[in-house]
Amino acid sequence: MFLLVSTSVLAQQAEPSVMAKFLIEAGVEYGGDEIARVFFTNGEDQVMRAGQGGYLAVGGQLEFAQVKPLMLRTSIGIKFNTTAADNANIRLTRLPFVAMSFWKINDDFRFGAGITSHLGVKFYGDDFLPDADFKSTLGPRFELGYKWIALTYSALNYNTEAGASFSANSIGAAVSFTIPDKK
User: Fold this and answer.
1) Model's pTM, two decimal places?
2) For residues 181 and 19, is the Cβ–Cβ distance under 8 A?
3) How many CB atoms lie within 10 A of CB 122?
4) Domain limits, the chain
5) In CATH terms, is domain 17-179 a member of 3.30.1490?
6) How are beta strands 53-64 and 45-49 bridged, if at all?
């Protein structure tokens, strides 16, 4: 009986050295060079920028028992931007990959720095503009967060096969959640 009780007490006291969590993140970003300007029949126009769009991403978060302020996150998602045209589906799509380390200032605030790159960057002109494929560079990403919301900044470029380069730098706002939510 003593052996069973002491074993369960020791098992409850052991804290895992690394805690892995499932990450869900969504956000909006704005910035970058103009890659297209769409003109509407009412005389208005809309500019599409390389860095703008909304995104949804999934990934993982690691927290460490030995270094409580340190946190690592990695994610992959889809970033999408479209025009307001009723008769066309002009859009820019890409798959952002992000790997970042964070320092938790306290339980509520965090600062992160890492890298990002966008995979499969594709502009669809829907026969109104020519389609284009881009290659993304690897660039830095920074984040300042409070609880589940954050301000983000990414700096990278999109390059065409013809040698043209577009800044895809962006500033944005994001929300993120982890499962399990417990510390």
Assistant:
1) 0.86
2) no
3) 13
4) 17-179
5) no
6) unpaired
In the structure encoding, which two tokens stand for residue 8, read together? 């369960």
Phi (first) and psi of residue 88, to 5 degrees? -150, 150
Distance CA 127, CA 94 (A): 20
How far, in Å, CA of 23 to CA of 25, rounded? 7
Taking the C-alpha atoms of residue 83 and residue 166, their distance in angstroms, rounded to an integer, is: 19
Q: Which residues pair with 175 in a beta bridge?
A: 26, 149
Residue 129 DSSP one-character state: B
pLDDT (tens digit, 9 = 90+) per residue, 64-119?
999 999 999 999 999 999 988 778 889 999 999 999 999 999 989 999 999 999 99
Check residue 41 and report its DSSP letter: T
Looking at residue 160, its amino acid is T
User: Do the Cβ atoms of 69 and 104 come closer than 8 Å?
Assistant: yes
